[in-house]
Amino acid sequence: LSSFPSYMNLLPAVQTCNITNLPENYFLKYYLYHALTWPQLSFVAVVRSRTSKNGTRQVDYDYPKVVGYVLAKMEEEPSDGVAHGHITSLSVMRTHRRLGIAERLMRMSQRAMAESHRAHYVSLHVRVSNTAALRLYRDTLGFEVEKIESKYYADDEDAYAMRHDLTPLW
Ligand code: ACO
How far is the CA of 132 from the centre of ligand 1 (A)? Predict the structure, then answer.
């Protein structure tokens, strides 16, 4: 797992991972904005594969493949006046699920929010039907539902607005 600045060249692959796994998609410049503004908060999970090409000579490539990411930021104008982080997007490729990758990505981002930005809490939105993500946030990471936001998503599905206290990490 690495923070974004060292993987700037992988942002298009992060974008592909997002498009593959979620209906909420963003322009590449939005990933760049996160990476440049809050470089400590977003992380990618990569696996390194070796492949060889047969030609006149054998060539070995050691290329990283993005299998997950967390895209995170600090809320720029918090309505409650309290410094807090926000998870913009999280996903892990199907081939690499239930290995603890999302939990690690989330914990790394949360720690960086607390240590680098003195974030009081972290917030996020999740679809009410997304049982896997809900289990992760509520049961594994200890998030609580703050409220339900009606028709939050473009297809009119409701969102749980969730948050988790980060002050124990200060
Ligand atoms: N069903 C039930 N519980 C689950 C599931 C599942 N399918 N997946 C994860 N969990 C819970 C479990 O408690 C799990 O612990 P366990 O494996 O010891 O039982 C815990 O979460 C940690 O699981 P991880 O292995 O860390 O999760 P994973 O790497 O598989 O990623 C994720 C979970 C991100 C939800 C993945 O399924 C995914 O990418 N889904 C599609 C995209 C998505 O829904 N992203 C979140 C949208 S909300 C947002 O972006 C703010």
Answer: 5
61 within 8 A of 50, measured Cβ to Cβ: yes
pTM over 0.80: yes
Phi, psi of 148 (to 5 degrees): -105, 130
> Cβ distance 38 to 73 under 8 Å?
yes
Ligand 1 neighbours (beta carbon < 6 A)? 21-22, 87, 89-92, 97-103, 124, 126, 130, 132-133, 135-136, 139-140
What's the complex ipTM? 0.99
Secondary element (H or E) of residue 15? helix 11-21
User: Best substitution site from 18, 34, 88, 98 to test ligand 1's pocket, by max atoms within 8 Å of Cβ?
Assistant: 98
Minimal-distance CA residue to ligand 1 atom 6: 132
Q: pLDDT tens track of the chain, all 170 residues? A: 666 667 788 999 999 999 999 999 999 999 999 999 999 999 999 998 766 665 666 555 567 889 999 999 999 999 999 999 999 999 999 999 999 999 999 999 999 999 999 999 999 999 999 999 999 999 999 999 999 999 999 999 999 999 999 999 99
